[in-house]
Design brief:
The complex is a heterodimer. Chain A is an alpha/beta fold. Chain A is built from 4 helices and 5 strands, in the order βαβαβαβαβ. Chain A has a 5-stranded parallel β-sheet with strand order 4-3-2-1-5. Chain B has helices spanning 16-29, 60-71, 79-85, 90-95, 113-121, and strands spanning 2-7, 33-39, 75-78, 107-110, 124-128. In chain B, β1, α1 and β2 form a beta-alpha-beta unit. Classes of the chains: A alpha/beta, B alpha/beta. Chains A and B meet through α1 and β5 of A and α5 and β5 of B.
């Protein structure tokens, strides 16, 4: 019997999940992760993004970066829909631990529990964790 | 199996690129294929030929170069991340009007599409980060 990965041709659509765990500022991971997602959109794969740990802050409404002299790139998350990146998952526990709720976020997301998100990760072909 | 590797941290400061190297080396020794190593975030700094670590320490860049030369592994540095951090090949140096280039042998600079392609083409894409 052939292994599942041997059956995939060049036209294969894979499930890509981008996992964002870091706060939007302080390090460059969030910004450069977003750059990957935007480029990857051209490849017409089955894309989703997950936000957990401090990564949930990436989607926080009302970001103001004037005081730190950095570009506020949070409006870009609103543009994701135009790139057909519509599956945004946010971990419920990460929100709750930080006193946040879905209403605090700047785009529509699906909030799901840790176990459900773990199960979803299990279904992915490629996970890029930033 | 066909592996893709993503290195998200620079040399020496984090162990991620050492671990990625050891993983790639072990995979090659077991007869697997390393389709590509993609360097992103500070990982692009793995590809500077100007590093001069102490002689009794490992030379991380030279190790990657040797792997590229001995096993034909494609070592790709992300152009967007490289431009931010001052990693240049000859063509980029000319284009940007810089007075020199610093990319090590065996590396090449290209776009994020190369990372997504690795995700599509490989049986496994393994991410090494902090």
């Amino acid at each position: 019997m052939s292994e599942p990965w041997e059956e995939e041709g060049p036209g294969t659509i894979k499930k890509f999940m981008y996992v964002n765990r870091k706060a939007p500022y302080g390090t460059i991971y969030a910004l450069e992760s977003l750059e990957v997602v935007l480029i990857a959109a051209a490849f017409e794969q089955d894309v989703s993004m997950a936000f957990l740990d401090d990564g949930v802050y990436q989607l926080k409404k009302g970001q103001d970066t004037a005081g730190i002299g950095m570009k506020n790139f949070s409006p870009t998350y609103r543009a994701l829909e135009g790139y057909d990146v519509e599956k945004l998952y946010v971990e419920a526990e990460s929100l709750a631990e930080r006193g946040l709720s879905e209403d605090d976020l700047l785009v529509p997301v699906e909030v799901m529990g840790r176990e459900a998100l773990a199960a979803l990760m299990d279904e992915q072909d490629v996970i890029l964790s930033f | 199996m066909k592996y893709g590797i993503l290195v998200n941290e620079g040399p020496y400061q984090h162990q991620a690129s050492d671990t990625a190297y050891q993983f790639a080396k072990a995979a090659l020794e077991k007869g697997h294929e390393i389709f590509r190593v993609f360097f992103y975030h500070d990982g692009v700094n793995n590809g500077t030929r100007f590093g001069v670590p102490p002689q009794d320490d490992r030379n991380i860049t030279v190790r990657w170069t040797e792997m590229a030369e001995q096993h034909g592994v494609d070592m790709v540095i992300c152009i967007a991340a490289a431009q931010r951090r001052g990693l240049l090949d000859e063509g980029e140096a000319k284009r940007q009007g810089k007075d020199g280039d610093n990319i090590a042998p065996g590396f090449r600079i290209s776009g994020l599409g190369q990372l997504i392609e690795a995700g599509i083409q490989c049986d496994r894409l393994v991410v090494f980060g902090d």
